[in-house]
TrEMBL record:
Keywords: Ribonucleoprotein, Ribosomal protein, RNA-binding, rRNA-binding. It comes from the Archaea. It comes from Nitrososphaera viennensis EN76. One of its GO terms (cellular component) is cytosolic large ribosomal subunit. This is Large ribosomal subunit protein uL2. One of the primary rRNA binding proteins. Required for association of the 30S and 50S subunits to form the 70S ribosome, for tRNA binding and peptide bond formation. It has been suggested to have peptidyltransferase activity; this is somewhat controversial. Makes several contacts with the 16S rRNA in the 70S ribosome.
Amino acid sequence: MGKRTLVRRRGRGGKQFRAIIVGKIAPAKYPNFKLEENHKGTVVDIVHERGRDAPLAKVFFDDGRYSYVPAPEGTIVGSTIQVGQGSPASKGNILALESVPDGTLVCNIEKNVGDGGKLIKAAGSGAIVFAHGAEGVTIKFPSGKFLTLNAKCRAMVGTIAGAGRKEKPFLKAGNRAKYMQARGKLYPTVRGIAQAAVYHPHGGGRHQHIGRQSSVSRNTPPGRKVGNIAPRKTGRGRVKEVPQKA
């Protein structure tokens, strides 16, 4: 009797495939202030949270509450962060997109008004406020994609700190494994054709080959649903032959 494929075992939701919750500090999001309010906060500490590549800034606000936000580049202990419409568009301040001039780098952008920041939170990332319009504010992401958001959505001016994170190699597979485990990512990944026949539908054989068609239907049973699922087109495109003149 065959065994379940790795995809099916991960889908069960076992603890060996879930992100580790040990070492988590607090949700990294803005405090729930009203848009018309103006507040000031002081960075009292810069901490690291497991599974997060960017540092977190612990901010003490003037209303007596603490919040953790992704630290923008240049943040130090004692830095001042202003929140509200009356805040200047300077590095580290949090204000609505409608108050941010075009061409400004922003990070930790709210996707919906009041969600505390969902976009551009990875280390070294930053987006550009591209244009203001009647339908909202258009943001250009590092990938080149454009997205129009509600003008009331808040963002932090600047880029996220920790831009050099990817420049240092892991050097050892164990370090890489711990990095992936903290994020609930699959590591290492093994090709289906490199596995035994009992572990994957593409496994087995005298040499590494799939042995059957790699395209499967969208209604294929879970144990066989691997490869190209309901593809529109696979393989090389056919070149139409042009008849030659005699």
